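Q: Convert this sequence to structure tokens.
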Amino acid sequence: MRQYPRGSGRWHRITWDEAMDIVTRKMLELRGRYGSFWPICFNKQTGNIGMLHYALDGLFAALESTVVNGTSCWSAGLDAFLYTFGDMRKPDPEDMVNSKIIIIWGGNPAWTALHQMYYINQAHENGAKVIVIDPVFTATAAQADIFIQPKAGSDGALALGIAKYITKQNLYDQAFLKQFVEGGNEFIQYVANLSDQWIEEETGLPREAWQEVAHLYATQRPGCIWLGLGLQRHVNGGQNFRGILALAALTGNIGVSGAGVYYPSQEHWRLLTWQTRAAFLKKAEPAIRTVSLNNFAQEVSKLSDPPVKMLFLAGRDLWQDANTGALEAALEQMELVVQVDHFLNRSSHFADIFLPCTTQFEEWDLVPSYWHHWIAVNQKAIEPRGECRSDLQIAQNLAHRLNELAPGCVCTPQVGSEEEWVAQELSPELFESLNVTSFSKLLEKPRKLRVSPLAWADLKFPTPSGKLELKSGLAWADGFPLLPEFRTGSYPTVHYPYRLLTPHLNSGSNSQFTNLHWLSWGIDEPKLRINPRLAKKLKIQDNDRIRVYNNLGEVVLPVRITAMIPEDTILTYTGWFPDKNQINLLIDGKSCDMGIRGTGQPGIALYDTYVNLSVV
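A:
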């Protein structure tokens, strides 16, 4: 479809040939005007993580355009793992059934990872204790044996309090620390000098709370820790992670069944060929220009040599970004905006061309995971609805039309059917790890990688010292403390005294599915959740309409009074709520402390946003 004029809502049906002609002619015109494809910015996220979705990535890399860099997901936490372990590996999630203590720290799998609750419940039935640490009383917390509610962003101080108790009570694994850990003695000396009073003030918790967790984790082994993504979305998120990782080192909960630390990993992605992306490339390191994903609007507006004049958007709703108030100005400088998606959304308001793409039900793909150890072929269940085309087909269409207009502009790989494209993603190493000899065997059922279910079972770490590093020279070289010291986070001000949290709903994934009312089970959203004590203080009643504001703007929402959150915190769930809950307008996009080493850009401190309230 084509929208003319942009923002009018007047969409007109056009053919795919017309769309390809409009898009490619503008691309070539910009190259002619500026001497390269840098004026074209490709902005995409992972979607359902299928490998064939990376065809568009390959095309725009081959064109040497401007592309986004970084990720909104896991950057700060990833760097903490790289400093501590040298790499990101985690145990098999199915091994969690063998844990005696499961600490879910900043995660809510009862909503966001139902598949893992099966193993958590099995462990619980076998006698394991489940501990949830979270500033919000979640659905997972409701099922836990112990719930601890620290101040948001104080997790590193809480971890140091737990470490202090473990070492002071001589409950740590001295043999493990001596043989496999670098900087263990220095870390013990550091936490010994921290006062309980300081820990109480930083976390907002009585000492009995962390001491109980410390005793259980150190004595009821093996124990595992699940680190949620939201936990590292603070300005001190990476250092907080380092403090928590130190707990596994102190107790020797590494490399044995039922132990370890769980966090997303792309370990087995290294076995894939990435041929779908590489098929369009003429050279291994194309001369692309990058712009930060997490501060896209601000950074793309600053590019001037040459400026960005065209945006190609795929698998992205820009209104999930921070500081959405800056987006309109950034998009106004674009001469053409192309969107590839399943549905029209807020970003579509600023698009000129909309290209409808297939869902996972309508396409072939190969789907790995950043969590479990299984790989599956996604087989087409139904034919594409209407005129939808897959990302792979769209990339091929663009390449073909570009070469018609400018012969030799880009590679046009002719692999064959989508099924054949899937097959070429399987390397000999992957076949061996999956214990199959042919692609047809993988079509029979999903296959599990033959990798150790225990991360770091050999206790060999790819760090400079070859040990698990609590004292990290790499961290020091990157400007961080040698040890997992607590670094002060972000605090409220007089003008904006309340922390705003924006976690996920159980019926959607970012902006996906929440636009389908029949699928979201009639959830009455958006609502602003506030603590009863705060409601009483501000004389607010249930369903009152409240103005939420800071220096970036304001949003008006109805109130839901609930004891699930602390008095100094307010919460609203993220999603796609057109013209209602554009809460990201209030998020300024400040950076986390870490992220550059692993993903090239720092993470984004979404949960260090502060606001004020007033009754409408």
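The chain is about 30% helix and 15% strand.
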